[in-house]
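Key result, reporting period 2: structure in, sequence out.
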């Protein structure tokens, strides 16, 4: 067999191995699971609490249209 051809085949085989390794490394990076840290969890919970509290305040203070005596007032006081 031609020595140049053998050398070429060896180099091509090495490139294939390197490509496969780099592909596996990229796959390993993409597989990471998102785990929020303590501050992220606290802020998310605080945000959800604020939303719930705001929705409760809207239900409490905003008068339904059929229960209003005066159409100029927006809030039930």
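The corresponding designed sequence is given below.
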């Amino acid at each position: 067999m031609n020595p140049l051809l053998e050398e070429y085949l060896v180099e091509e085989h090495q490139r294939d191995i390197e490509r496969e390794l780099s592909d596996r490394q990229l796959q390993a990076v993409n597989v990471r699971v998102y785990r929020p840290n303590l501050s992220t969890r606290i802020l998310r919970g605080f945000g959800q609490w604020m939303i719930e509290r705001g929705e409760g305040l809207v239900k409490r203070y905003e008068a339904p249209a059929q229960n209003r005596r005066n159409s100029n007032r927006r809030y039930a006081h």
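The first helix runs from residue 3 to 30. The helical segments are 3-30, 38-61. This case is discussed further under Risks and Mitigation.
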